[in-house]
Amino acid sequence: MRRFIRHPSDVPIEVAPGQVAAGKTGALHDVSYGGLSFNSKDYYRAGQIIRIRIPISRPVFETAGRVAWCREEDGHFVIGVEFLDQEDVYRMRMVEQVCYIEHYRKEVKIHEGRDLTSQEAALEWIAKSAAEFPDSDDD
Question: How far apart are CA 35 and CA 131, in angstroms?
Fold first, then answer.
């Protein structure tokens, strides 16, 4: 079984059918070696090609994916997507780390009252958590 990485629910993801660049906003849910899942108010059918945009990183992560599954949970949908381009798998690893760093920055502000720049948050997060970040080839 593949290892999935649970992401903070405050990480935004924009999804649109076909090749449209931006669309409805949802929240990133999990990321695996070959794809991701996200929460959405909208239903997407299995096999449908969608455009994914995660605006938290620079440059912005954008790719196309194929809906692998869609299931209803507690009044919303959780959609599983497989990447169409293998290079996106490696790019997504960088986005994952940015997501965790930005979440860490927000948590520090809430719990400690410290305003960190993204660079300061990255240095602290790497020192505290990078060793625990799963390898992309873990199964």
Answer: 22
* CA gap 66, 82 in Å, rounded: 5
Kindly report, residue by residue over 80-121, the tens digit of the pLDDT: 988 887 777 667 777 777 777 888 888 899 999 999 988 888
Residue pair 33/86 in contact by the 8 Å Cβ criterion: no
Q: What amino acid occupies position 53?
A: R
Q: Tell me the whole-structure pTM to 2 decimals.
A: 0.63
Asked if 91 and 97 count as a contact pair (C-beta separation under 8 A), the reply is no
Q: Three-state DSSP class for 24? A: strand
Q: How many CB atoms lie within 10 A of CB 138?
A: 10
Gap between the Cα atoms of 116 and 138, Å rounded: 32
Domains (range + CATH), the chain: 5-85 (2.40.10.220), 87-129 (no CATH)
| Chain centre to alpha carbon of residue 26 | 10
Structure tokens at 115: 């305003």
